[in-house]
Amino acid sequence: MHAIRLHAFGPAENLTHEEVDDPQPGPGQIRIAVRAAGVHLLDTALREGAQGPAPAPATLPTIPGREVAGIVDALGDGAPEDLLGARVVAHLGFAPAATPNSPSPTPAACTASPHASTSPEPSP
C-alpha cells in the first residue's frame, strides 16, 4: 500500500511517501481499503513529537491520520462476514494509522454506510 510515513519528529518535510506491506487483520478485526483519509490538526502536534492526549508519544515510524473511509476488503477470524465489501467510516482513536504492526479496526470501531455496497463505486 502507499503511505505517508514519519520516521523522525519535526516539520512536514520529515513526511515521506513510501510503499509498505499491506496490514493483515487479526482475530475479530477488519481491514479497510481506504478511499479517503483525514489528518486532524492534532496530527500536526503529534508529528512534531508532542504527546497529545495519548498515553505515550507515537512510536516511529508511524503513519499520521486516524480518520478513514473505504471498503472492508479483508476480515480477521471471527469478524462478521457481512462486513466484507461494506462501505465504512472509522475513527481509529489513538492507534496509529495502518502499519503492518498496528491493530486493525474492530467492527465496533466502524460505521457502515446506509448505502453499503460491494462495489467500490459510490452509491448515488
From TrEMBL:
InterPro entries membership: ADH-like_N, GroES-like_sf, Zinc-ADH_QOR/CCCR
Keyword Nucleotide-binding: no
Keywords: NADP
Domain Alcohol dehydrogenase-like N-terminal stretches: 26-92
Highest taxon in the source lineage: Bacteria
Positions of the UniProt region annotated as Disordered: 9-28, 95-124
UniProt entry tagged with the keyword Nucleus: no
Protein name, UniProt field: Alcohol dehydrogenase-like N-terminal domain-containing protein
Taxonomic lineage: Bacteria, Bacillati, Actinomycetota, Actinomycetes, Kitasatosporales
